[in-house]
Amino acid sequence: MTMARTPRPSGAAAASSTIRLVIFSIITLSSGWIGLLVNNALGVPHSMNSLGSLIWIVTPLLAGAVMALSDPSLRRPYAASWLPGRLRAYGVALGVFPLSFALAIVVGWAAGWLTPAGLGAFGGAVAAGVLGTVLKNVAEEGAWRGYLAPALIGRQLSAPWIWLISGMIWSLWHIPYYGWLLDESLTRSVYDVPPLVYALITVPIMICWAPLFTELRILSGSIWPGLIAHSIANLSQIPLSLGGLPIAPGRELLVSPLVGVIPNAVVLAAGLGLWARRTGRLRRRPR
What we know:
single chain; mainly alpha; 14 helices; globular
């Protein structure tokens, strides 16, 4: 699994790239906890409006930029990733999460577990959240798909290892966010469990998302399709967290557009489909 125009480092250069990857991972996974310590030192409550939250969201972006720009094998692809890239990935980016949400809602509605009648009332709230969501995801995608995914691909790892490692780092980075920085009422509105339980549930979810986001990065050579898909997914949380899609207790893990098995299976299938097509596994084998 290789990324176009990304030379494979060798010898000392490969070791240096690996060291950068390890440093990035340590800095990234520490950033949220450091942010919480800063909030405690300042005597301010943990929230998304705190300095700790800013440290958490910005640190991976800055660390990724430093690691990529100091690595000769990644410098050019990293710089190019901020350009629009190849347009064929954008249709997938726009369509996957709406399709997954629609399927989950249709199944849940048909089974009598939810009713989508109230969703339309939250269009204004979603529109108001677009700018903040996009800015947050510039930082996230700049780190995860700008640096981390290409860095892992450059190690010549197999695709499942790339998905597992990138998904684990991405999801574990979120634990301070779901556990402390985000208002607990918002996570409980999506799935009524303690914040740390919710955070742990998102770990396999983000691993399931990793194939899609990795393939969008490879297909486009850009962070922007992933940013679009990521923002659509995040914006869907707004009506859910405001009570716009009440789901029968015990059915959230099946049909919730965020934590449900059905929508996340669609996202995983889309990522695996892109990978299979790119690697030729969808082509008919000669008899």
